[in-house]
Specification:
By secondary structure, this protein is an alpha+beta fold. The chain contains 13 helices and 19 strands. Homohexamer; trimer of dimers.
Amino acid sequence: MTTDDDARATTEFRDVPEADCDRALDLTYSVFHLTPGDKTRHRHAGMLRAALRVGAYDGGQLAGVAGAHRRTLSVPGGQLPCAAVDFVSVLPTHRRRGILTSMMDGLWRRCAADAYPLACLWPSESAIYGRYGFGAATELCRMEIDSSRPLALRTAPDSRPLRLIDPAGAPARLAPHYDATLARRAGRFTRDESWWRCGALDLDGASMRAGQDGFGPAYVVVLGAPGETPGGYAVYRTRGPGGSGPGTVRVAELEAESGPAAAALWSYLVSIDLTSTVEIQGRPADDPLLHLAADRDQVRVTGQEPDLWLRLLDVRAALTARSWAAPVDVVVDLRDTVLPANAGRFRLTAGPEGATWEPAADTPDLSLDVRELASCYLGGTPLRHFAHAGLATEHTPGAVRRLDAALQTEWLPFTGENH
């Protein structure tokens, strides 16, 4: 009789060659019960071939796979390479054998070799990834606007003209505005033209839900006259009234340089004929729309949930690369059972001029796990929340407050995209 220990001992963990990418996709689709169309599969195949890939092979059979996209993430004060973990799948015949843990170990080695200080993911089961050091680092709000009447606003809309532009030419027009948001909000990914076309705009129709929910293709509206840099833009889709429900505008993305610019774009979206609802798929928790609206009953938050989960693979590199809002000097006793090189007692000395993170022998001011540090890293969750929950321990009075002040950002981090 073969035991689980015997099965794990015979499992080989190694890089997945490009020749096995189709097998890896089939495995992932079977685990997540997906039946993609040809366009979606073609897109996923390209993404997997460009990713870091680790597989579990049992007697030559691919029993598990884990990948990571090579992305760049905005952090307070800059940008860092970030491995976006994806395609994580284990055959149901091979669960509870430590295969996922071994594949993640393989990914961490690949990330270290390629100098990735951060990893991130969007978990299908969030309870799993906390034990690997991931913490929820950004929040996403879902909203809905009653558009059966004009949107009442407390801020006068920007008077510049609004224009619909061809989505095929939108990446070149929208990219400068989007890139400017990277310095303002942490948690956002840089985009190349391919990512604009296939991800943000879905111009090839490869979305898993394309054509299945009654919504049409993407529209792009920009604020500003031809030839000038747009003051903002929105990407949206529409569905007319009928058997699927009321006419609806579904907003995928909206960026605005100011409150008046945002007011102009929201007013436009609410005014689209034959629709009575505006669905907003994801906005930051501090979105100005919640204050722009004169009637909060007209704008409802329908849900709030963790979005991007972050892992600090190289704590020193991550902490010394971000900016700091206030000076702080604390000794931190950090736990990291997965990546022991991060664990130990360190002195964080940081401020507007920069930061250092060096081993220390002094009595700690704080004790916490790398998971909680990841949640605080982008400025989205104050450390005091974890201290109140008993997940971080303050040994020196005021240490939590000082570190919170140093980690604070003007805008909450926000991601708003998946992969």
